[in-house]
Write a structure and sequence with these properties.
alpha/beta, 4-stranded antiparallel sheet
Length: 413
């Protein structure tokens, strides 16, 4: 009896960890209903859906997908739905079936102008830093072109590269685009720094399974801006903390926490600024993907502004490829109201354009999605990203050695 119970538990765990396609088990009529619902949400929730694609082009894409649904695989349907959604442009127009994805134990990032492996299964640690030159024998440039078809168009090149790096490990996306066959494996052709070229075939895992796979980073010690320390326990929280360094007061802001946390944190930042001995405050938004910028304006910025003016501390605002949406908005607030100086690298998000997520869920597949629904303008000039006054690029040598050139700038300064 105990063996039977154990077997049932194992089977349940196995079933829970095996993510299935959101279209699995749906009839063609149900998938078509989802497609029609998607079209309606995109064209009614977005105030100006046809800024970057004409209504005729959008409708033609819809009809083409509609007429081909019966012959598509589940992954091809997913790609088709994504292409229709992202054709509107803007990063807030997207579908997020992330829970159903199967990923290889590998992560890429664009650093110093090259896509490189920054995380990988510990068994293949020797490939850290390797540059992809093909996926399943398809040249990497061709793979990138295919992936760009499912990425929102009217965003920065940095934004696009971030999504390419993510999708390079997603089985469903690569299969739906015809890069790999219906298989649990992905084969990468990689070029090492010594010039050697190797083929590496990796299995793919559901999200739950992947969390159990031991992976290693390109660096031995995680730099401060990547740490999620909980400096102040219940008063602060991961992604919202402050630390006094020799040459600056470092304020990590990577998460839009609940209002009550921002309110509690006001005392902490006020006290830290009062006791600062460096004369420099760095508000680090480099890994902040957005949230509710109004919450910061209403419940946190006034206190921060008062403390900064009273102390005379010089404010710097760290930005980079991970700075998107509300984080870009609040970065402009910190510049205007704290007399801050932007430092780092260009953002992935634009300061002006349609933003804010108007969410929806497809009725049958239950795929969550969103469209941009509010126009925001935070600077006068319409630029493709927010650009730093003091540009400090991150090199591959910096990254693999766990160095942060932005923090080192203050030591040199």
């Amino acid at each position: 009896m105990k063996r039977i119970i154990l077997l049932i538990k194992v089977l349940c765990i196995s079933m829970m960890s095996f993510a299935q396609s959101p279209f699995e088990g749906l009839s063609n009529e149900q998938v078509l209903e989802d497609l029609q619902y998607l079209k309606k949400q995109l064209t009614t929730l977005h105030p100006e859906p046809f800024l970057f694609v004409t209504e005729e082009e959008f409708n033609l894409n819809f009809e083409t997908i509609k007429s081909s649904l019966h012959s598509m695989s589940d992954n091809e349907k997913l790609v088709a739905f994504l292409k229709l959604t992202t054709s509107l442009g803007q990063g807030h127009c997207n579908l997020r079936p992330f829970d159903s994805y199967h990923r290889a134990p590998i992560s890429f990032n664009m650093i110093d102008g090259q896509f490189r492996i920054v995380v990988i299964h510990e068994k293949y640690a020797k490939y850290l830093g390797a540059i992809p030159i093909a996926v399943n024998e398809i040249p990497f440039e061709e793979v990138k072109t295919k992936l760009k078809g499912v990425i929102p168009k009217h965003e920065t090149e940095i934004f696009s590269n971030g999504w390419i790096a993510y999708y390079l490990s997603v089985r469903e996306m690569l299969n739906g685009l015809g890069v790999i066959q219906e298989s649990s494996n992905i084969t990468y052709k990689l070029k090492l720094d010594n010039g050697e070229v190797h083929d590496l075939t990796l299995p793919t895992y559901s999200r739950e399974e992947l969390s159990e796979v031991k992976r290693v980073n390109a660096f031995d010690e995680r730099p401060l801006y990547m740490q999620r320390e909980n400096e102040f326990g219940a008063n602060g929280g991961q992604g919202l903390w402050v630390k006094q360094l020799d040459h600056l007061l470092y304020f990590r802001f990577s998460t839009y926490t609940p209002t009550k946390v921002f309110k509690k944190f006001r005392k902490i930042i006020r006290k830290a600024i009062k006791e600062d001995t460096s004369g420099n405050l760095l508000i680090d938004l480099r890994r902040n993907g957005g949230g509710d910028f109004i919450r910061v304006r209403k419940h946190f910025l006034p206190t921060l502004e008062k403390a900064v003016k009273k102390s005379g501390i010089k404010v710097y605002v760290g930005i980079g490829e991970g700075t998107f949406s509300a984080a870009v908005s609040n970065a402009t607030d910190f510049v205007k109201q704290l007399n801050g100086t932007l430092i780092g690298e260009p953002t992935s998000g634009r300061p002006n354009g349609y933003q804010d997520n108007c969410g929806f869920t497809l009725p049958n597949s239950k795929i969550p999605g969103s469209t941009a629904c509010v126009y925001r303008k935070f600077i006068e000039e319409d630029t493709p990203g927010l650009f730093p006054e003091i540009e400090i690029p991150l090199t591959w040598e910096d990254y693999k050695n766990g160095r942060d050139p932005l923090l080192e700038y203050f030591i040199d300064y």
